[in-house]
Amino acid sequence: MDFIKNELIEIIEWVEQDPNMVLYKFQDKGNNIKYGAQLTVRESQVAIFINEGQIADVYAPGRHELNTANMPILTTLKGWKYGFQSPFKVDIYFISTKQFTNLKWGTPNPVMMRDPEFKQVRLKAFGTYFIKVKDAKLFFKEYAGTHPILTIDKIEDSLRDIVSPKFAEAIAEAKIAVMDMVSNYSELGNVIAPILQRDLDEFGIELTKFQITSTTLPEEVLAFYDKMTNMNMVGNNMGQFTQFQTANAIGDAANNPGGAAGAGVGIGAGIGLGNVIAQNMMNMNNQMQQGNANQAAPTQSKEDIMKMLKDLGELKASGILTEEEFAAKKAELLAKL
Question: pLDDT under 50 in the chain at which residues?
Answer without folding.
Answer: 1-6, 260-271, 273, 295-297
